[in-house]
Amino acid sequence: MNLLDKAILKIIQHKVSHWFDMERSLKKVPNCIKASKESPEKTWPDPNKIPSGGEIPFSLRNIFVVGKYLKSSIHHGIKSIKSLDKNPPTPKSTISPKDLQAFESHAKSLGIGAIGYAKLPRNLIFRDRAVLYDNVIVLLQEMDKDKIAKAPSIDTFKMVFETYDSLGKNVNKLTAYLRELGYGAQGGHPLGGLTLYPPLAKIAGLGWLGRHGLLITPQFGPRQRIAAIFTSIENIPIAKSNQYSWIGDFCKKCRHCIRSCPSQAILEEPIIHESGRQTHIIREKCLPVFVAEQGCSICVKECPFSKTSYEDIHKAFSQTHKTILI
Fold it and tell me: What is the pLDDT along the chain (326 residues), one digit of tens a residue?
């Protein structure tokens, strides 16, 4: 690394370390909900685990392309924590159908593509993190289909970080919106986050996890970023079922992401942890290629759900297996 690269790396490490320190400080908030003993460690993007060679979750040579989005994401991630003192002192716990509909309409006007609701299992909270509420609003925002099709490329790389930044800003806007209505709310930024988002989105009934560990939805396939708002609202319409379980059966037969992965980082069979959580990716294999290949995203690009409509895949798979899949 040259001196400029080292200087940039040092600045990034400092900013992300400050963000992570603030996240860890949430454990000190009275009555917070902490991780369980089965909770996973937050491994990305951990500034304390950047290899000595300088490999970080983006290429230094492209920092001038994504730098402003990364800087903004860090700013809004910190803002989501600093703004907690703006919660109402006695937050409301029940939302009217009118307020909920207004919230959803506002979210979609900002560019949110899908919304789900769930109760947060403690084992999905990252170790050394905490949240204020276990009622969760899960938010999805689409990644551009045409730019995913160019992966790996500068255009794809830029779009991925731009989506992280845009969704992070929207989370803070929607959190403020709920507070103005009298509800308690805590934003969870999409970059890294306080919890594991894909399984949380699955619990919220928004989609199913593919072989690559990514959420697959009918709207966007695997082309979305995920964020959350943890709220005092007790009567959110929590999903009671998930109609997308057939995707798991499809993925077992497809294996296209496994064959396409340049780092061979996708497991044939996921590791099932004691808590029931699943690990689909070997991060030690994935990250070096992610860094070297402008964010990679090949598993997203090559997934059949990125190329063919959900309805067409569902219909073909149902007919092939001579069964009706909901």
Answer: 566 666 766 777 788 889 999 999 999 999 999 999 999 988 765 555 544 444 444 455 666 778 889 889 999 999 999 999 999 999 999 999 999 999 999 999 999 999 999 999 999 999 999 999 999 999 999 999 999 999 999 999 999 999 999 999 999 999 999 999 999 999 999 998 999 999 999 999 999 999 999 999 999 999 999 999 999 999 999 999 999 999 999 999 999 999 999 989 998 888 888 777 778 888 888 877 877 777 789 999 999 999 999 999 999 999 887 654 44
Residue 185, strand partner residues: 231
Spatial contact of 223 and 145, defined as CB atoms under 8 Å apart? yes
CB 120 within 8 A of CB 135: yes
Query: β-strands 208-209, 135-142: how paired?
Result: unpaired
With CA atoms as reference, report the closest residue to 222 among 263, 193, 194, 254: 254
- Residue whose C-alpha is closest to residue 74's, from 226, 228, 225, 191: 191
C-alpha triplet 25, 55, 81: angle, nearest 5°: 20
Using CA atoms of 67, 68, 73, 76 in order, give the dihedral in degrees to the nearest 10: 150
DSSP 130-169: EES-SEEEEEEEEPPHHHHTT-SSHHHHHHHHHHHHHHHH
Q: Residue 187: enclosing H or E segment and its boundaries? A: strand 185-188
